[in-house]
Amino acid sequence: MAEREAGEAFFTESDGLLLPARHAHGPWSPDMLHGRLLGGLMAWAIEREHAADGLHFARFTVDLYRNSPLVPLRVGTVRVRDGRRIRVADATISGEHGAVARASAVLLRRGEQPKGRIWNAPAWDVPAPEELPPLARASGFNLRWIPSGGATEDGFQSAERHRVWLRETRALVTGESLTPFIRVVLAADMASPMAHFGTAGLEFINADYTVSLSRLPLGDDIGIEGAGHLSDEGIAVGQCTLYDISGPVGFCATSAIANLPG
Length: 262
What we know:
By secondary structure, the protein is mostly beta strands. It is built from three helices and 15 strands. Strands 3, 4, 5, 6, 7, 8, 11, 12, 13, 14 and 15 form an eleven-stranded antiparallel beta sheet that branches. A two-stranded antiparallel ribbon has the order 1-2. A two-stranded antiparallel sheet has the order 9-10. The longest helix has 16 residues, at 35-50.
């Protein structure tokens, strides 16, 4: 069972608007909303309005096409398709200057598991979250660095594979606990630094991310492991494997653009 999130939530709902707290800012600017919270809000709205028993969130794509200051936001959703085995829903977030992000969710109906065997990502042979020291709390979550090759808990600035446990420490919306789906969508935004951080730091800023899940995670901790990075002429693509305490749950893919001055 997930533990109760501590501290003030990132947003308060009032008259159809979501009002951000000051601590909802991201790492790029103290006046800019953290991009992962946009994905979290759209997951929250789609889950609230379109989830149903027997349907599983198999894919969730977030497009981050405009930075948002810390202003009231409105989330709207629409059901695009409702079939016997599939449901598709979209969401859009708008601020005072128009739309800032959109998302699309594909829900598939659960059923009998086929009997054939297929190669899949192995269970992690890594220390459990409680066996690792937490790093400094930032942006509403705790990271626990998992040593890998030459990379250490000193930071992401290396050319080694990055692996972490991530645990949310705040509620997204006042009065509402994080569900497993919202928890993994919030964590998945970390796929960009996990895939794109290198010896010179984080030189790419992500424009999107797509979460693909075979099942929802168990517990509070989401494991994230860099699984690949490719880049050329300032454009990067990356992917990560997502874990919970019992094994892999899905993947996250992200595209990014060079974060250069000027």
